[in-house]
Design goal:
heterodimer; A: about 160 residues; B: mainly alpha; 15 helices
Chain lengths: ~160, ~400
């Protein structure tokens, strides 16, 4: 077994183990912390794939943004920290159905998709290539701009909702 | 003599040569050298912090017309230089109190994570010519993403303490950390645009003219955001002594408090190092090409100078309220940072690619100065209007 495989198994185990803890912990705050650990694991996978920019983005957005938002939501919501509250509600049946269906689709795709493998090592200037591809008319400039407009709409919407009348 | 000229790099090479002369396989030699290098790098902040805390105490004392540490009993040393060691020993012997009802795991892990993140910053700081832990091609972005890790540790410490003041302080400091990340990232973006790279060594190499001269407004934005993230006055909300004692780590004692304390100073040292690297030309200086070891000394001098600036802000300005701090960020720094990015980008496009670094720096400086004047003008008009409104309100009463 090469060093890379050992690291992959380690990082994968951290990611999946933490993800499992997220759904089994009764203490919601602990679940959120394990979610952050799981995000770190995913960032580790990106590092193993030689995509450091994506890894840093993962930490920046998911840990610094989304996870903190979740923690705030937990702390500012009533009753969510009550350990005696039931773990499931009336919708558990349909939720199980959706979860199993999603898992099936993802598993089927993982097994049947023709995964491309890059020949040789990743070029050293992958950062520059990524930057150019994002603003290249032949590349991803349209999705990039659409995302920007979408974010702007979200901002305006948030301001409109939060504004005092 | 030749050995001394590039002392630190040569010591590393000598160590590697020593290992290679034994019968160890090559991969092991590389692994051991890297591990030793990482250990040495991690020890840099942990050891220099002792001197640094003493330096800060001396400055504070001078600003307050005091002598500062000058004697610490039997262990004094000249100018009380060993006082910090006495403090450290005292810290180790204090009782470790865990509050009742605390979330033990979260409470105990938070200080360790805080210290770990403070050490991790040093991996990408260029400490001299050819002297850097790892020259990542995302360098400065790695530093920004570490900031999100430190937000998590604040939440953990505030929540784990089972103390409502700690939790409120944690909320407060998260609010500032999240808001001030935006002008910080935007001012870093301007530096990256001018340097054309995210790598720390490339940013240093691009500074034929120090970016402080080319981008004074950007440097100000970065410094303001950094001061706030460090919890330094005038943004001293994280640790507002008069209201919430020690903020989110009020419940910590003994060595765990020591970890927070040391991490705070290490973050300040790292912030000074980042400011020097981004805006003061990092390790660059005269005679660096002939005597590479001088580069580390230049960087040290620049760091001490930046620390002095931070200290002057810290110990001469009064503290703002939380609403003033957040309003200052969202209504002043963030819009200014956005306009600054546009202005520097537009100014940069007017320079032909063949122009030298001096022309480029001149154009950027022009854009920054014009923008500063416009901002000051708007502020003056807005201030006058506010005063007039206030006067007419008083007159009608």
């Amino acid at each position: 077994m090469t060093l890379q495989q050992i690291l992959f198994i380690l990082v994968g185990a951290i990611t999946l183990g933490a993800a499992l803890m997220v759904v089994t912990r009764r203490n919601v705050f602990h679940a959120a912390l394990f979610l952050i650990l799981s995000f770190f694991g995913v960032a580790g996978l990106y590092v193993l794939l030689e995509a450091p920019f994506l890894a840093a983005m993962q930490l920046f957005i998911y840990v610094g943004g989304i996870a903190i938002l979740i923690v705030f939501a937990i702390m500012l919501t009533r009753e969510v920290m009550n350990p005696a509250a039931p773990g499931a509600n009336r919708q558990w049946g349909s939720a199980l159905l959706v979860a199993v269906a999603l898992c099936g689709v993802l598993g089927w795709m993982a097994l049947n998709h023709d995964w491309k493998v890059t020949p040789g090592p990743v070029s050293a200037d992958s950062m520059a290539n990524l930057g150019k591809a994002l603003v290249d008319p032949q590349g991803f400039v349209l999705p990039f701009e659409v995302t920007a407009v979408l974010l702007l709409i979200t901002f305006i919407g948030a301001v409109t909702i939060a504004r005092e009348r | 003599m030749e050995f001394l000229k590039n002392l630190i790099v040569n010591v590393g090479l000598w160590f590697q040569g020593l290992l290679a002369s034994t019968s160890l396989p090559e991969t092991w030699v590389l692994a051991i050298t890297r591990a030793a290098g990482a250990l040495a790098l991690a020890l840099v902040p942990l050891v220099t912090i002792f001197f640094f805390i003493w330096y800060e105490r001396k400055i504070v004392a001078r600003i307050g017309s005091r002598l500062g540490p000058n004697n610490s009993g039997a262990y004094g040393g000249p100018w009380g230089i060993f006082q910090v060691f006495a403090d450290a020993i005292k810290m180790f012997t204090k009782e470790d109190v865990i509050p009742a009802g605390a979330d033990r795991w979260v409470f105990n892990v938070a200080p360790m994570l805080t210290l770990a993140i403070a050490v991790m910053i040093w991996a990408v700081l260029p400490l001299g010519k050819g002297l850097i832990g790892i020259d990542l091609n995302i360098g400065i972005f790695y530093l920004l993403s570490l900031g999100s890790g430190s937000i998590v540790t604040v939440v953990m410490a505030g929540w784990g303490s089972n103390n409502k003041y700690a939790l409120l302080a944690a909320f407060r400091s998260i609010a500032t950390l999240i808001s001030y990340e935006i002008p910080k990232a935007l001012s870093v973006l301007v530096v990256v645009m001018l340097a054309g790279s995210l790598s720390m060594q490339d940013i240093v190499a691009a500074q034929d003219v120090a970016f402080l001269l080319a981008l004074p407004l950007t440097a100000f934005l970065f410094l303001a955001a950094t001061l706030s993230e460090l919890g330094r006055r005038p943004f001293d909300l994280v640790e507002a002594d008069s209201e919430i004692v020690a903020g989110y780590f009020v419940e910590y004692s003994g060595i765990k408090f020591g970890m927070f304390y040391v991490a705070q100073f290490m973050n300040q040292l790292a912030a000074a190092a980042i400011f020097s690297t981004l805006f003061l030309g990092g390790w660059r200086g005269p005679w660096v090409d002939q005597v590479p070891v001088l580069s580390t000394l230049w960087l040290t001098a620049k760091i001490l100078l930046s620390v002095l600036i931070i200290q002057f802000f810290q110990y001469t300005l009064p503290r703002l309220r939380i609403d003033q701090v957040l309003a200052f960020n969202w209504k002043f720094l963030t819009p200014l940072a956005l306009v600054n990015v546009c202005a520097v980008a537009l100014a940069g496009k007017t320079v032909p690619a063949s122009a030298g670094p001096l022309t480029q720096a001149g154009i950027s400086l022009g854009a920054n100065v014009v923008l500063t004047l416009i901002v000051l003008g708007i502020l003056a008009i807005a201030g006058r209007q506010a005063r007039q409104r206030e006067a007419s309100r008083l007159a009608t009463q």
